[in-house]
Amino acid sequence: MREEQREKLKKIILDLIKDPSYHPMKEKELCFFLGVPKEEKAAFQEILMEMQEEGVIGISLQGKYSRAESFSQKGTFHANRRGFGFVSLSEKEEDVYIPKGEAGNAMDGDLVKVILTKKSENGSKAEGKISKVLERANKEVLGLVKEKREGLYLSPDNPKLPDCILISPGRDKGAVPGDKVVLEILSYGPSKENKAPRGRIPRKRISPLLSCPVGEVKEILGHKDDPGMDVLSVIRSFSLPEEFPEDVLLEANQLPNAVSPEKAEETGRKDFRKLTTITIDGEDAKDLDDAISLDYFPEKEEYRLYVHIADVSDYVKEGSALDLEALERGTSVYLTDRVIPMLPKALSNGICSLHEGVDRLCLSCIMDFDREGRPLSHEITPSIICSNKRMSYHKVTALLEDKEWEDPEEKLSYLPFHELLTKMRELARLLRKSRMARGALDFDFPESKVYFDENGNISKICAEEREESHKIIEEFMLIANETVAEEYYWRDIPFLYRIHEKPDWEKWQNLSHVLSSFSYSLKAKDPDNLRPKALQELLSKLKGKPEEAMLSSMILRSLKQAKYSTEPEGHFGLASKYYSHFTSPIRRYPDLQIHRIIKENIAYQENEKRRRHYERILPDVASQSSLRERRAEEAERDCMKLKKCQYMKNFLGEVFPGRISGLTQYGIYVTLENSIEGMIPLRFMTEDYYIFNEEEISLRGEASGKTFHMGDPMWISVYAVDTLSRSIDFLPYYPEDAEGGNSLD
Asked: Which residue spans traverse the membrane (predicted)?
């Protein structure tokens, strides 16, 4: 087809779809309608594709063509550091792939309009181009000031943002290279349609900075090497709150610092102060929001478990400054060296925290179990308690497992509770056995823990296993959360649930394919037959195997993220029909919201006005809480990666043992004994040319035949650390006798 014919056909197509009476048609229908000869169909397809790429026409997910604006959709742009990205439209629709160069001047997190340029087919994602930015997510950017010949520029901490934002001359506030600053963006740079003019200027003389976003320095935080600047950068990067507003602090400081006699004796609040009650938390925890008591009745062989949760709702009233700030924060954020609390310290470490030897208001979930750990009955009631002993996980485990104590006198203070703790362990094991029998998943990953010396420097990082004491508290909190969720589901009142949806069928099939290369099977005939029991059995088979850590991590990544919802859609990972978050109101807003609903329901039973109120507000509370939880998780993960990088800078050139935790076409991931992971880029494997086998997930040397598999032990030397990208590079190390390597613990 000649060029003039192509242009003429383009005009005909455009005139057709602009006609008010036009209804979107598929390619085959357009061919028939326009009378395109059979021999010109291939050329017609090319024309349609060209018009899509030019943004003149659009295509729906069903493959129908119309004006571009007819099929433009709103979504959030998620950029990738390699230049491409995705636009997420909604939970029910697949993401749209945005190829490199098709994002215009959109940045990560922006709300955008996207035009589809290619429909989804044969398993590939739909493709599109961003036609308009509707709302900017990045009005201020944190980063490091650097310098080029053309002037100062900002290198953002967020690797998904453009790597160069020009600092407008005269608007640098005195910032110099090496400073960490907050930059306000003045211009986001030209879109694809408005590139820097070429004219008669030779192209080679056009500075890349002309197409950069431009901003002005709003605040200089300090030099990048100043103490505390690293964590402050993380806080600012994720827009975490740093201080409480004055009105919130004023409200918090007006609260009592002790429970008044009137409160202790109020109608409907049960007095459990004579019960033996304990708290078990981390050594340095200050926000103690749960305590436990246990009665055992030998004649009936029955247990009565009391889970006491701080009654934060008695102090944080709905609509107050404290409440609105807590909703905005959503959750406490636990960074490596500090906590950003959801509530001011007057509450989180004070009147709400269940300290030893003081009266505290609670909401108690009292549950009876038979000798097999089966539930018999329960009650949820406002209460008052007085904790008899503040215990730590390590010391409870030491007592139960008869380990040595550093301080024998401290052991004496625990001994009176030995029988109680033994019975608690007994019940926890019964509850766990019951939970595992129904198919609940248990990812027993060790957690990375950072230790600091008296000067605030990292003394060590190590992987800490879950102890028996952790499992006791975990089981008791899980059963309380389930009991509360089921109780209020059957009461049929508006409520907040914690849900975990089934995995995507495609991800399940991909996981099954990978597992088959390790001789493990994961069966399911169709999406309706996905069961956690299948994954649980698989995790059980992996126990103790070299590939356990890698495959368990892969299984975890294949699952959806848990979230909050007003509908009880079940919790896949826990194999539970009903689940809620009830046990941590000091640090999670959904728990606080649930406490209000429970207390109102106990006091007033049915109240139509409050029912309508909760039906109106709870969807937003669920959404906000899920978003804030994601932000907290990402910030905590980023801070931990940063600290690991800083720590490993002390060991450049040193040799350590590890295990292969990942294999790709780019390199070998190795995890050290202390949980720190780095990568050996394949370009460093100079002794041979290695080929990646995607089916077997292995690397094989072309000449030597040497093969690397998941879980294989491997010695490495630390080659390079980049704190900005949070990455660590290793070199392979092949000693004659590697027994003289270092330990990081």
From this structure: none
